[in-house]
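Predict structure. Chain length: 541.
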Amino acid sequence: MDYQKLANLLYPNVKTSPEEILAKYPPRNLKQGEVVSRFAPSPTGFMHIGNFFQMFISYSLCKVSNGVFFLRMEDTDAKREVEGARAFIYDILNRFGIKVDEYPTLDGKDVGNYGPYVQSQRKELYQIFAKDLVARGKAFPCFCKKTEGKEEILEDRKTKFLENDETEYDPCRDLSYEEVKEHLDRGDKFAIRLRTKNTGKERIVFHDLIKGDIEAKANAKDVILIKNDGIPPYPFAHAVDDTLMGTNVVVRGEEYLGSTPVHLEIFEALGFKPIAYCHNPAVCKIGENGNRRKISKRYDPEAKMLYYFEEGYPKEAVLEYLLNIINSGFEGWRAKNPDAKWEDFKFGINDITAVAPIFDLLKLNDISKNIIAKMSAEEVYENWLAWAKEFKPALADYLEANKEYAIKVCGIDRGGLKPRKDIYKWSMIQEYFSYMLNRPTEKEEIDNIANYKEFLTEYAKGFTLPAEKDEWFAGVKSTAEKLGYATDNKLYKANPEAYKGNTAKACEYIRLALTGKKNSPDIYELMKILGEKETLARLKG
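Prediction complete.
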């Protein structure tokens, strides 16, 4: 077989050589240790936390090493592409403050020198390298009709390959030049398959940056490099794109471990140096049966990255939580550096977890509580307002119309050595402080209605709000003592039947009148924010 003649027959219009293309994509000028990695999503819907997790590992490795982080849109599966998905990907990255160095813009331009950054625009590049493989006898045309997608390929195997056979040699690998020409003259579509060099008995060892050396069976399948629609599946596109774009670390899910031998043989056939792989484990959850399972967009709302904005988590909390499950050392670092930015945490590839992380919403909530607790009242207000503008417009109107009051509400129990840590997302504040935004219409159970009404009626007589907390508390004790409440807790504990209650019970009645709850932040602080007029109105019920 004259393979060059065959290659010219298949691709008569491809005149450019691989060498010319490689010259257009020179190696990046990198310093020792600088990482070049990418986020390569398919625009097929919302962004899953598993994809974001891998992206964040790539992003962090690049930023820590002063390397290059780029975005490549893998849009070759036109059937699954969802309208608006590309813009959504950019939106999520922007929301989290992920700065991409090179990327395709939504209006079709490229930022960076290694584009196009959209796979569907790189079709000619794939053809150039496919033609070269055919010309060197390392690939061949396949005219089998079922070569478009994974399902068709699997179905094809049932008829073309022996069950349990160690090899999958496609019958078209033995077609003569004349037979190929006959197919083309009939207008038959063709795919390009790799002519594997292996027999099914070979073993290979490859190195994973997380898992170390891995031994596996070498590929022995004539895998598809270019489908009959001219578009490559992932293995071939990955080898060509990441080589030309200068990627030196590929972060991807460990589900790709099984297909790595295929990818390595493709690299070898192309004459490319293999790229270092970092196969990270999938993000998991503990199911109802106690077993570990992958986090699922079907069952877990937190699998969708927009969920965290809908709920109102600070973006810093989500990123810090992901760092925590990427590298267990982050938690200790944060304890020693409570006020540092998360970007100051430095880690390398060897520090990435090799164990499937368990997603724990309670842990995320704890991290978020600590972050919000450090914010000023003004910062809380601004974040709450920004969230409300997007997800609760009526609330946003209220917050803007009552800014000064709302800031005071946001400042309740804030500051000091031990600020409250009850709030972990902006969506909580309206309900958490509902009694500050509206008079409570319902109250928690009151143990003695008669005593409750009697105390509040007496306390409201001539009520004024003192300027100092001690003076206010003295007034509460005076009313309580007058009505038969113990103001000395030791006396109350010694003979509780002799009293209607103690000072704490009197404060509970005030708290119920103001908030409808038996537990709340400091009563005096609430009164100061509500103001004397509103406080008195609530005391009178």
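Summary: The first strand starts at residue 36 and ends at 39.
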